Amino acid sequence: xxxxxxxxxxxxxxxxxxxxxxxxxxxxxxxxxxxxxxxxxxxxxxxxxxxxxxxxxxxxxxxxxxxxxxxxxxxxxxxxxxxxxxxxxxxxxxxxxxxxxxxxxxxxxx
Length: 110
Hints:
Layout: H1 2-20, E1 26-30, E2 34-39, E3 42-47, E4 52-57, E5 71-75, E6 79-84, E7 87-92, E8 97-102
Antiparallel strand pairs: 1-2, 2-3, 3-4, 5-6, 6-7, 7-8
């Protein structure tokens, strides 16, 4: 009897865990001119004013092969996108705001 109850509880916990996992796109930033969404390892920056989309994919690389200094990938009248060592920085020029997305590291850099 106890083993059946324990098994039923285990099944319920597993179902609750899997029900909470979804791959729906998450909106990280939104303004009248820029929308930034994240789905899995893909970050999509949409320039609404210029009607363009820029897609960035996160991959794992060795620290020695990673980006060491920020560099600009897109610079238009409405947005500027920089790749930074820990993620992505988007300058929303029309709203005069800066959005920085940093990936979470599991290791200390000290």
